[in-house]
């Protein structure tokens, strides 16, 4: 047993090192590509304050915050997906499919609409308050979905179907709301809702870092509960886990992670669904291994998608959510065909 | 679902007559309401004693009437498509929007607008058939290759996946070619901009689809009892399914090319119809025509009133009506056990 565990730990370490190396490589690729190309050597020079003013402007004011945000959002959505799949015992759960992302998006759009005149949208206060608005929306959406799916307990299939329905409902409200916004704002909002790292600024990075730094370690700390829950409610309560309260607490963590990610990155779908599966395939069913691997994998996938989106049809920027959907929807279809 | 009226053809005929009357009233409402209200008497005169010198008569003849008639056709076509899908697959959640058909048609339209901007109206409709067809084929393929067959939840998720993928590609194309506005219109669904040409297109292509649907209605009833029973009664299920899919494609393609992605009509109407009229598709299809037409004409009126003087996309209205219904189904038969 101990030998197997030591082996697992070693594997985790090597996977993490490999992923980290990939992230570093992609980080530099991402920094150097774009409408204005900066050679990798110059990127390093600029990072050490040796570049030209123009290079500094492009890197520090535009690219670096965007890339850091992609890393943070990817990690957040992936861990949110891990938790949701664990607590619902449903392999197809994901904050996007369940409608939590759309709920958070609706809240942010409403917030921007009602307080636009009182707040300067680029001021640091409104940037720090936006994840909170998204969180409120995400929690409300989660409560609505959970309540509507409740029928003497929550059946995983019903939860997914109800999620799809609620998602469509929120989307309809957003469409109706469109007429009340001025066209420029609306366009921005719709692009953002398909998943776009929007308003990439250092303030947004600073607004997001604490959420991830607090919530992901909590999720990791709760990994044993997730492992037990995977065995089914009856076994879990037999082993002394108070299932409902643990589940609600973990649901809150997942919703908070999704909410914060949506505030910065919009409704990026499928990422939270696919990453946990890949992590499980590499590391097996234990969450203390799945969560760290998912964190890095999610960050990597979103950064790569962001880079593709920026360069595929340059100078047109494709919202990152679209690239993520294109990359991960086929895998989702494969999962769908495989699961019973 | 049980029907509450049993075996009496007279009561079915009465229901049809009442629905037709309601539809006429609804079309009347649709023509008279709008940014300027036009009295019923004027509407009557504009239709039967048209005077080209009166603006109100022109508004009725050129704008409002074709719009109301198009709404009726589009609603009818979507409802019949949904009815055929639900009958053939025995799946309560089958419907054009859930299965990504509308996304497929919109995808083909965006593709045509981007790469063949001078394309004719007929060309646009043809391409939306093809797009709808690709989406249906993909969703059915996922269903039939999947480990436990085409369960309601699989169908819905496969529809979500295919729909999202097609929409992603459409977004990329529309961003690159600056077609967001056109794309947004198709994704939201709307009936403004319909003309008598739209009515003609709907009448010709949809008429064929409707006749086809009616001609296989008896066989769909048998299929809805189960494939084994249908085979046992000597029916060529494969042929019926092909004909059914062709009818679905023609009807949905025509509807989407005129009105964009109007969701949930094809989901709700067949359920209501089955509840009222029973399980015989020889009745379900004509009744779905009337109910679908009525639903969309009324939704179109609501879409103009809800935020007057602006128009709300009619797809948003049908979604708001459809979502509670979908949730009811998801809690019941769809997500049962």
Automatic annotation (TrEMBL), chain A:
Q: Principal place where this protein is found? A: membrane
Q: Which UniProt keywords apply?
A: Cell membrane, Membrane, Transmembrane, Transmembrane helix, Transport
Q: Name one GO molecular function term.
A: transmembrane transporter activity
Transmembrane helix is among the record's keywords: yes
Q: Which InterPro entries match?
A: ABC_BtuC-like, ABC_transptr_permease_BtuC
Write down the membrane topology.
Multi-pass membrane protein
The entry assigns this protein to a family as follows: Belongs to the binding-protein-dependent transport system permease family. FecCD subfamily.
Question: Which protein, by its recorded name, is this?
Answer: Iron complex transport system permease protein
Q: Where is it localised?
A: Cell membrane
**Which GO biological-process labels does this protein carry?**
siderophore-iron import into cell
Q: Where are the transmembrane segments?
A: 12-31, 64-84, 96-115, 127-150, 157-177, 197-220, 249-274, 286-304, 316-337
Please tell me the species this chain comes from: Mesobacillus persicus
From TrEMBL, chain B:
One Gene Ontology cellular component annotation?
A: plasma membrane
Q: What's the domain of life for this entry?
A: Bacteria
Cellular localisation: Cell membrane
Q: Give TM segment ranges.
A: 12-33, 68-85, 97-116, 122-143, 155-177, 197-217, 238-269, 281-298, 310-330
Q: How does it sit in the membrane?
A: Multi-pass membrane protein
Q: Name one GO molecular function term.
A: transmembrane transporter activity
The record's keywords, sorted A to Z, are: Cell membrane, Membrane, Transmembrane, Transmembrane helix, Transport
UniProt main location, coarse: membrane
Biological process according to GO: siderophore-iron import into cell
- Similarity comment: family membership: Belongs to the binding-protein-dependent transport system permease family. FecCD subfamily.
Q: What is this protein called?
A: Iron complex transport system permease protein
Task: Tell me the organism.
Answer: Mesobacillus persicus
